[in-house]
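Figure 6 in text form: structure in, sequence out.
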């Protein structure tokens, strides 16, 4: 099962809408771009009750990280470390009715087998943990 959780809620991942690209950028660097979208069907079930925690939202969350440059030659698996130490990333955040700033983001693993990301997001005045676990095979 895929995981795209915010707080205690797992929106799962819409694999068809999500993408991960890693392309040569020159000078021995690769450019990483990630777009992960929550699953529409799971989102609809979670927001159906009027008193549901996420009933205010119109669509599932989307995580994005664009323009992160990392060194080539790490054997296909990357442990990026804290995103805060990579100021060259063009943009990152979670969009869910408004842009939520992400912080303490740690891309723990990007390999041929999985993408694993965790951190904190500020949404609607609340700071909550988020976690993405996406098998890639």
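Output sequence:
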């Amino acid at each position: 099962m895929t995981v795209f959780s915010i707080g205690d809620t797992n929106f799962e991942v819409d694999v068809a809408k999500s993408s991960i690209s890693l392309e040569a950028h020159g000078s021995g660097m690769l450019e990483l771009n990630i777009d992960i979208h929550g699953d529409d069907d799971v989102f609809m079930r979670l927001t159906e009750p009027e008193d549901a925690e996420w009933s205010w939202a119109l669509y599932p969350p989307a995580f994005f990280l664009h323009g992160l440059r990392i060194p080539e030659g790490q054997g296909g698996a990357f442990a990026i470390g804290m995103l805060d130490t990579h100021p060259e990333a063009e943009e990152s955040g979670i969009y869910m009715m408004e842009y939520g700033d992400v912080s303490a983001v740690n891309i723990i693993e990007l390999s041929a087998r999985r993408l694993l990301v965790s951190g904190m997001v500020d949404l609607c005045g609340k700071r909550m943990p988020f976690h993405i676990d996406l098998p890639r095979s």
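Caption detail: The helical segments are 40-47.
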